[in-house]
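Exercise: predict the structure of this protein bound to phenylalanine.
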Amino acid sequence: MSINEKLKQIGEEAKKTISIVDTIHDLNNEKARYLGKKGLMAEFMKMMKDATIEEKKEIGKASNEVKQLITKLLDERKEYIENKKVEEKLASESLDVTLPGKISNVGVRHILNQVTEELEDLFIGMGYIIQEGPEIEIDEFNFEKLNLPKDHPARDMQDSFYISDELLLRTHTSPVQVRTMLEYGGKEAIKIVCPGKVYRRDDDDATHSHQFMQFEALVVDKMTTLSDLKGTLLEFAKKLFGDDRSIRLRPSYFPFTEPSMEVDVSCSKCGGSGCNMCKGTGWIEVLGAGMVNNNVLELCGYDSKIYQGFALGMGVERIAMLKYGIDDIRHFYTNDLRFLKQFK
Ligand code: PHE
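Solution:
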């Protein structure tokens, strides 16, 4: 084989072997194999040590060309391997925007809180402010100052959880009204709503719960009359149950109001003609109300010859049940997500 053929053969081999190398590590091995101190080109040069000067000149030129070729092949392959690495990295990091996203579970405010807030908004819109008080209350504020002295038979209407003789879980949010009247010192007008949890020693069933939520309102002023109460109740009924609702007042008894009344709202299902929801009467009992009893005003520091007022109180659960057609009060407390999620 001629020297030129031999060189050509090395060049051809380099083209083949370098073109299939895939890693920089293997490429370095190839470099050493062809161009290293003990590589093929070095071997080749050694074999030529006995050539004539003329021959050496020619061989030198030709072998340089092969070395340049191999160097070029190595460089090109190196660039190719590095580019491929970058491309693979980019491909592995690319986003597939067609994949379905993760659905995050967004919570819902509890329906009782939603109804409470709706009531708050309604009354705030009429100039009321919100007052809150403790759930553990003293007998004096829960009963006595509301015209319910010890041994008053009407205490039976609100079976109570007593903690001691003088301490109990409040049975209504009316003690917040007592606290406010005492705080205002019998001088200023009052216009408040009192939302909150209350407790009664009831057996739990579809319409009773030993813990529930109330929403009460109190207005005390020098010129407050029953017609103010009536207007407020009508506004409440229309805003909460629909514009074409009307109201009906029936005489009732509460120790803290005189006169006292039960308030009915015309049935939102049948519009008043009678159906299963209103038990054929066309009316649904919704809340209790009345003009603040003079005794209560006096016990709480207001001169009943100058001041008068009205109060109303409702159960938030009952309002929510009527508004959304819920038939069992226990749904509110059992935390079944299928129930709770309906009220988005
Ligand atoms: N506090 C009464 C109750 O819980 C409700 C009520 C409030 C009635 C105001 C009339 C006036 O039974």
